Amino acid sequence: MAEGHGRGFTTEILHSDRLGGPIEHGALHKPVHGSVAYGFDTAEMLAAVFQGTEKGFSYSRSGNPTVEALEAKVTAMEGGVGTVAFATGMAAIGSILFSLLRQGDHFLSSSFLFGNTNSLFQSFAGQGIDVSFVDATAVGAVEAALRPETRMVFVETIANPRTQIADLEAIGALCAERGIVFVVDNTMTSPWLFQPKAVGAHLVVNALTKYIGGHGAALGGSVTDTGLFPWDRYPHIFDAYRSAPPARQALTQLRKKGLRDFGASLAPEAAHTLALGAETLALRLDRACANAAALAAQLQAHPAVRRVYHPSLADHPQHDRAAKLFRHSGALLSFELDPREDLFAFCNRLTLAVNSTNLGDNRTLIIPVAHTIYFEMGAERRAAMGISEGLLRVSVGIEDQEDLLNDFAASLAALKF
Ligand SMILES: *Cc1c(COP(=O)(O)O)cnc(C)c1O
């Protein structure tokens, strides 16, 4: 993102509100605008804003100045042409399908997927939008599953919880060649570790709730258009939005369908909290990733630990891909203990790592995934996703590294087998 202004990643975020336009009273942060509706001096101006011939805000469900300031930051971080923010990461993903796919369409998804995204895709399958799940770590499986009616391919960068890494470059090239929309969920890497635009992604999803917000204090999601897809050739853009430049057509439709019609809008208070978090994304993630790599190495060295999954490890199947594409290997890892060990007891002995489902918090969080987030889908589907019954996921935080390693060392020392 440095190219545009010659400024670095953190500098750009820190100064974007102040330099992005006039701010009341010289405030260094974009103020929280709580007004639901906006008034105009003339009815003509009101009509012009509704018709899109003048820029402005009419009703906060469709757009809000505080939310817009956050959208500008995400656009800059991702090197995109524009961003629409949503109430949650799930609302962002759901709005892409709701806004841009129609009955009879088919899309492909990586089978290594955040659990709720998997569940969401199954719901759309019941509404006449067909989905196939494929092993996206190699482009061959993706190519083999394409159909004439395939409109979209959806992958995560580093999959949660097993940390498989999609064949991002090859899938991007395939989608470009076939004119298929390539959607990349960048939540696990965030734009500090990776810009999906570099591999040809057309739409980039971020669960702002996670690393960008960082403090586990607000929910939010976003979709950024990288400007690489020729939307003027996409059949499902409504005529009303064809007057926008091609690079803005999908964003306009996402805003109209996902926010105005479906109401998946981000609250301005949450946007403010997330924008504060974004200022320290790079600092926090550097530290959390270093902690994660150190913890992965410590776990791997212990005899009672069967497998450790983290892209920093030399035996990770996509270790080289991660090293080539990402700044660091991410701050999430998972591991399996000897199946005779009591998983819950291992978690309960930890004093710093919290039993909690979130990820991307500043605090280290641990969760037995088969019993919680992947419980509803059943053992068969878990097995297909490579999730063993004994898998523990750790979202590594920014604690002082020695404290974190000591916490895990103490619980490992009490293992029996
Ligand atoms: C958490 C998460 C989401 C959903 O984000 P929410 O803000 O919790 O709705 C989507 N994708 C990935 C990879 C996630 O980790």
Layout of strands and helices, then pairs:
Blueprint: H1 2-5, H2 9-19, H3 43-51, H4 65-78, E1 82-86, H5 89-100, E2 106-110, H6 115-125, E3 130-134, H7 139-145, E4 150-156, H8 168-178, E5 181-185, H9 190-193, E6 203-207, E7 221-225, H10 246-261, H11 268-278, H12 281-300, E8 305-309, H13 319-325, E9 332-337, H14 343-349, E10 354-355, E11 365-368, H15 378-384, E12 391-395, H16 401-413
Parallel strand pairs: 2-3, 2-4, 4-5, 5-6, 10-11
Antiparallel strand pairs: 1-7, 6-7, 8-9, 9-12, 11-12
This protein binds pyridoxal-5'-phosphate (PLP).
Pyridoxal-5'-phosphate (PLP) is lined by residues 88-90, 114, 117, 156, 160, 185, 187-188, 207, 209-210, 219, 221, 359.
Corresponding CATH architecture of the largest domain: 3-Layer(aba) Sandwich
Which structural class do the helices and strands define?
A: alpha/beta
Q: Briefly, what CATH class of the largest domain?
A: Alpha Beta
Q: Could you give the distance between the termini?
A: 49 Å
Largest β-sheet summary = 7 strands, mixed
CATH topology of the largest domain: Aspartate Aminotransferase, domain 2
Strands, count: 12
| Rg computed from alpha carbons, rounded to a whole number of angstroms | 22 Å
Strand content: 5-15%
* Residue share in helix: 25-40%
Low-confidence stretches: none
Q: How many individual helices?
A: 16
Hetero groups: pyridoxal-5'-phosphate
The fourth-level CATH homologous superfamily of the largest domain is Type I PLP-dependent aspartate aminotransferase-like (Major domain)
Average of per-residue pLDDT values:
95
